[in-house]
Specification:
- The chain is mostly helical.
- Helix content is 47%, strand content 2%.
- The chain contains 7 helices and 2 strands.
- A two-stranded antiparallel sheet has the order 1-2.
- The termini are far apart.
- The relative contact order is 0.15.
- The mean pLDDT is 79.
Length: 209
Amino acid sequence: MIRNVLGSVVALVGAAAAVVSPFRNWYEGRLGRDYRIQDLFEGITATESAVLLSILLPFLFAAVVALAGVLLRSRLVVAFAGVVVLGFTVLWMVRQGQAANGLTVGGDGSGLQTGVAIAGSGGLLLLLGAALMSGRRGGARHRRTEPFTAPGSEHPDTWPPTQEPGPAAQTSPWPEREVDPYVGPSPREDQETRSYPTQDEGPDQRPPR
Protein backbone atom coordinates (compact mmCIF):
# COMPACT_ATOMS: atom_id res chain seq x y z
CA MET A 1 0.00 0.00 0.00
CA ILE A 2 2.77 2.44 0.93
CA ARG A 3 4.75 1.56 -2.19
CA ASN A 4 1.71 2.23 -4.39
CA VAL A 5 1.14 5.62 -2.78
CA LEU A 6 4.80 6.63 -3.03
CA GLY A 7 5.12 5.40 -6.60
CA SER A 8 1.91 7.15 -7.60
CA VAL A 9 3.11 10.48 -6.18
CA VAL A 10 6.45 10.21 -7.99
CA ALA A 11 4.73 9.27 -11.24
CA LEU A 12 2.31 12.19 -11.01
CA VAL A 13 5.17 14.60 -10.37
CA GLY A 14 6.94 13.22 -13.43
CA ALA A 15 3.81 13.60 -15.58
CA ALA A 16 3.37 17.20 -14.42
CA ALA A 17 7.02 17.96 -15.23
CA ALA A 18 6.61 16.55 -18.73
CA VAL A 19 3.57 18.76 -19.39
CA VAL A 20 5.26 21.91 -18.04
CA SER A 21 8.52 21.40 -19.95
CA PRO A 22 7.26 22.57 -23.41
CA PHE A 23 6.50 25.99 -21.87
CA ARG A 24 10.19 26.43 -20.96
CA ASN A 25 13.11 27.30 -23.19
CA TRP A 26 14.58 24.29 -24.92
CA TYR A 27 17.33 25.59 -27.17
CA GLU A 28 18.72 29.12 -27.49
CA GLY A 29 15.63 30.80 -26.09
CA ARG A 30 13.11 28.84 -28.18
CA LEU A 31 10.20 27.32 -26.27
CA GLY A 32 9.43 23.64 -26.57
CA ARG A 33 5.89 24.32 -27.74
CA ASP A 34 7.32 26.11 -30.81
CA TYR A 35 8.65 22.85 -32.25
CA ARG A 36 6.22 21.03 -34.51
CA ILE A 37 5.59 17.29 -34.21
CA GLN A 38 6.54 16.76 -37.84
CA ASP A 39 9.88 18.48 -37.23
CA LEU A 40 10.84 15.57 -35.00
CA PHE A 41 10.58 13.23 -37.98
CA GLU A 42 11.52 15.48 -40.91
CA GLY A 43 14.06 17.81 -39.34
CA ILE A 44 14.02 20.96 -37.23
CA THR A 45 12.88 24.13 -38.99
CA ALA A 46 12.28 27.73 -37.94
CA THR A 47 8.54 27.43 -38.56
CA GLU A 48 6.43 28.15 -35.51
CA SER A 49 3.84 25.59 -34.37
CA ALA A 50 0.42 25.70 -32.81
CA VAL A 51 0.33 24.64 -29.18
CA LEU A 52 -1.65 21.43 -29.70
CA LEU A 53 0.43 20.46 -32.73
CA SER A 54 3.74 20.94 -30.97
CA ILE A 55 5.87 18.64 -28.87
CA LEU A 56 3.36 19.30 -26.09
CA LEU A 57 0.95 16.80 -27.69
CA PRO A 58 2.90 13.59 -26.98
CA PHE A 59 3.67 14.85 -23.48
CA LEU A 60 -0.03 15.43 -22.81
CA PHE A 61 -0.73 11.93 -24.08
CA ALA A 62 1.92 10.52 -21.76
CA ALA A 63 0.46 12.42 -18.80
CA VAL A 64 -3.03 11.00 -19.46
CA VAL A 65 -1.59 7.49 -19.77
CA ALA A 66 0.34 7.94 -16.53
CA LEU A 67 -2.79 9.11 -14.73
CA ALA A 68 -4.68 6.05 -15.98
CA GLY A 69 -1.84 3.83 -14.82
CA VAL A 70 -1.92 5.35 -11.35
CA LEU A 71 -5.67 4.86 -11.06
CA LEU A 72 -5.38 1.28 -12.27
CA ARG A 73 -2.22 0.69 -10.21
CA SER A 74 -0.54 -0.65 -13.34
CA ARG A 75 3.24 -0.46 -13.39
CA LEU A 76 3.44 -1.24 -17.10
CA VAL A 77 1.16 1.63 -18.08
CA VAL A 78 3.11 4.14 -15.98
CA ALA A 79 6.40 2.84 -17.39
CA PHE A 80 5.03 3.18 -20.92
CA ALA A 81 4.26 6.85 -20.24
CA GLY A 82 7.84 7.38 -19.08
CA VAL A 83 9.21 5.73 -22.22
CA VAL A 84 7.07 8.03 -24.39
CA VAL A 85 8.39 11.16 -22.66
CA LEU A 86 12.00 10.05 -22.81
CA GLY A 87 11.62 8.83 -26.38
CA PHE A 88 10.33 12.14 -27.73
CA THR A 89 12.91 14.08 -25.72
CA VAL A 90 15.78 12.02 -27.14
CA LEU A 91 14.29 12.25 -30.64
CA TRP A 92 14.17 16.04 -30.38
CA MET A 93 17.79 16.13 -29.21
CA VAL A 94 18.85 14.05 -32.22
CA ARG A 95 17.02 16.31 -34.68
CA GLN A 96 18.23 19.48 -33.00
CA GLY A 97 21.79 18.21 -33.02
CA GLN A 98 21.51 17.50 -36.75
CA ALA A 99 20.13 20.99 -37.42
CA ALA A 100 22.72 22.80 -35.28
CA ASN A 101 25.65 20.48 -36.10
CA GLY A 102 25.89 19.45 -32.48
CA LEU A 103 24.37 20.29 -29.12
CA THR A 104 25.99 22.69 -26.68
CA VAL A 105 25.31 23.90 -23.20
CA GLY A 106 26.37 27.49 -22.48
CA GLY A 107 26.24 29.54 -19.32
CA ASP A 108 24.93 32.57 -21.19
CA GLY A 109 21.64 30.86 -22.09
CA SER A 110 22.76 29.38 -25.38
CA GLY A 111 22.48 25.72 -26.28
CA LEU A 112 20.35 23.30 -24.26
CA GLN A 113 18.23 24.94 -21.61
CA THR A 114 15.95 24.06 -18.69
CA GLY A 115 13.01 22.76 -20.74
CA VAL A 116 14.99 19.76 -21.96
CA ALA A 117 16.19 18.99 -18.44
CA ILE A 118 12.65 19.16 -17.07
CA ALA A 119 11.32 16.86 -19.81
CA GLY A 120 14.08 14.30 -19.24
CA SER A 121 13.56 14.45 -15.48
CA GLY A 122 9.82 13.91 -15.95
CA GLY A 123 10.43 10.77 -17.99
CA LEU A 124 12.87 9.42 -15.39
CA LEU A 125 10.42 10.13 -12.58
CA LEU A 126 7.72 8.22 -14.42
CA LEU A 127 10.00 5.20 -14.72
CA LEU A 128 11.00 5.53 -11.07
CA GLY A 129 7.37 5.73 -10.01
CA ALA A 130 6.59 2.58 -11.97
CA ALA A 131 9.48 0.81 -10.27
CA LEU A 132 8.30 1.89 -6.81
CA MET A 133 4.71 0.79 -7.33
CA SER A 134 3.86 -2.71 -6.16
CA GLY A 135 0.93 -3.06 -8.55
CA ARG A 136 -2.17 -5.09 -7.90
CA ARG A 137 -2.17 -8.06 -5.58
CA GLY A 138 -1.83 -11.42 -7.23
CA GLY A 139 -4.63 -12.92 -5.21
CA ALA A 140 -7.20 -10.56 -6.72
CA ARG A 141 -6.57 -11.95 -10.20
CA HIS A 142 -7.39 -15.51 -9.26
CA ARG A 143 -10.74 -15.42 -7.55
CA ARG A 144 -12.35 -18.58 -6.22
CA THR A 145 -14.68 -20.02 -8.83
CA GLU A 146 -15.50 -23.33 -7.12
CA PRO A 147 -18.83 -23.60 -5.29
CA PHE A 148 -18.80 -23.26 -1.55
CA THR A 149 -18.55 -26.56 0.27
CA ALA A 150 -20.83 -26.88 3.27
CA PRO A 151 -19.25 -28.12 6.52
CA GLY A 152 -19.45 -31.89 6.84
CA SER A 153 -19.94 -32.57 3.13
CA GLU A 154 -16.33 -33.39 2.29
CA HIS A 155 -17.42 -36.97 1.45
CA PRO A 156 -20.31 -36.69 -1.02
CA ASP A 157 -20.63 -40.50 -1.37
CA THR A 158 -22.14 -40.88 2.10
CA TRP A 159 -25.24 -39.10 3.25
CA PRO A 160 -25.77 -38.02 5.90
CA PRO A 161 -22.08 -37.30 6.54
CA THR A 162 -20.52 -39.57 9.10
CA GLN A 163 -18.29 -38.31 11.84
CA GLU A 164 -15.23 -40.08 13.09
CA PRO A 165 -15.45 -41.07 16.77
CA GLY A 166 -13.43 -38.88 19.06
CA PRO A 167 -10.87 -39.98 21.62
CA ALA A 168 -13.55 -40.35 24.26
CA ALA A 169 -15.41 -42.95 22.19
CA GLN A 170 -12.34 -45.14 21.66
CA THR A 171 -12.00 -47.46 24.66
CA SER A 172 -9.34 -49.77 23.16
CA PRO A 173 -6.61 -49.29 20.60
CA TRP A 174 -7.68 -52.61 18.94
CA PRO A 175 -11.00 -52.88 17.13
CA GLU A 176 -13.55 -55.21 18.71
CA ARG A 177 -14.10 -58.54 16.94
CA GLU A 178 -17.60 -59.13 15.78
CA VAL A 179 -19.20 -62.15 17.48
CA ASP A 180 -20.78 -64.65 15.13
CA PRO A 181 -24.37 -65.62 16.02
CA TYR A 182 -24.83 -69.11 17.49
CA VAL A 183 -26.59 -71.47 15.09
CA GLY A 184 -26.29 -74.69 17.10
CA PRO A 185 -24.06 -77.73 16.60
CA SER A 186 -23.31 -78.94 13.15
CA PRO A 187 -24.85 -82.27 11.99
CA ARG A 188 -21.47 -84.00 12.14
CA GLU A 189 -20.78 -82.94 15.73
CA ASP A 190 -24.24 -84.00 16.74
CA GLN A 191 -23.72 -87.47 15.23
CA GLU A 192 -20.34 -87.99 16.93
CA THR A 193 -21.81 -86.97 20.27
CA ARG A 194 -24.58 -89.48 19.95
CA SER A 195 -22.32 -92.33 18.65
CA TYR A 196 -19.69 -92.35 21.41
CA PRO A 197 -20.70 -92.29 25.07
CA THR A 198 -18.70 -90.48 27.63
CA GLN A 199 -16.92 -92.16 30.54
CA ASP A 200 -19.76 -91.40 32.92
CA GLU A 201 -22.22 -93.31 30.81
CA GLY A 202 -22.66 -96.99 31.53
CA PRO A 203 -23.52 -99.74 29.10
CA ASP A 204 -27.18 -99.34 29.88
CA GLN A 205 -27.10 -95.62 29.12
CA ARG A 206 -25.74 -95.96 25.55
CA PRO A 207 -28.29 -94.66 23.14
CA PRO A 208 -29.75 -97.25 20.81
CA ARG A 209 -28.56 -97.30 17.23
